[in-house]
Automatic annotation (TrEMBL):
Known EC number: 2.7.1.59
UniProt keywords, alphabetically: Kinase, Transferase
Xref: InterPro entries: ATPase_BadF, ATPase_NBD, Euk-type_GlcNAc_Kinase
Single Gene Ontology MF annotation: N-acetylglucosamine kinase activity
Name listed for the protein in its UniProt record: N-acetyl-D-glucosamine kinase
UniProt entry tagged with the keyword Coiled coil: no
ATPase BadF/BadG/BcrA/BcrD type domain boundaries: 20-327
PANTHER family linked to this entry: N-ACETYL-D-GLUCOSAMINE KINASE
Family membership: Belongs to the eukaryotic-type N-acetylglucosamine kinase family.
Amino acid sequence: MGSIQENENGRRGGGEEVILGVDGGATSTVCVCVPGDISHPLPILGRAITACTNHNSVGEPEARSMLKQVMLKALSEAGSKVSDVRAICLGVSGVNHPKDEQRLLCWLREIFPSHVKMYVHNDAVVALASGTMGKLKGCVLIAGTGSISYGCTEDGRQARASGAGPVLGDWGSGYGIAALALTAVMKAHDGRGAQTLLTRCILDSLSLSSPDEIIEWTYADPSWARIAALVPIVVSCAEAGDPVAHEILNTAVYELALSVKAVVRKLMLAGEDGKGSFPFVMVGGVLEANGKWDIGQEVINAILQTYAGAYPVRPKVEPAIGAALLALNLMLKEMEA
């Protein structure tokens, strides 16, 4: 996904106000720098990328260090300075409680001037904004390395489901799918489960000779993204007719759809009769077509069976731009208040 409008060379002279939009997922973090004038057509002036900034994964000191680096790099790419920043919107995985937001806001105050408007949210919020052009209304499903469903109503009510990490509930995520596949291989090896094509394909992919070696491979570096990278193998095995792989993907579709339905029910996004319309934004690599097995389309079908008024949205801009658009809209509301 690209910018709304690219300028000619991606740079400009300093002194003009800018806005920073940040999307920090479980795998990578992207920061974009856009003009601070809300009437501007919003070109991307600078863009930078770094690794995961979820404090639950990398620790708070490392998360803050990388967030600072990625923001400063985007400003540098734009030819801007810290003093040029008008507003910042961070959407970061691991921000699950008001105290998480407050810690980040206090830290940002140490870096940026007091006049800067600051907004901190979970990354699901800016993902929703990427599909609704900065407006918080509807539901979003993120399914990449991790997974989460989030929804918001016009009057500001919010709800979420899943998104509690690989131990407590990223069901249907890339990590969740791959973890089930690795478990299936170990069960088959032990004689506790059905034999599966996943065994040979995963061993070949990892250059291992025996399922016993999977144990060492897994715990040598149990990073979420490293394990989630096995998802294409699960998809290819399902396409080849392997029933175990097929069931794993069916389980993922069920869990992802279930999390969306939970949010829709909590917020009554479809109205009391369940027939109302609402945008359903879909973000993340798991939801993109992968060969003949299109998990995203299967999730859409499952949602529409219950909520016929839901209309799926595949964002045309990346979540970091959604963060910048959200900042613009929030500033506009404050100006109108």
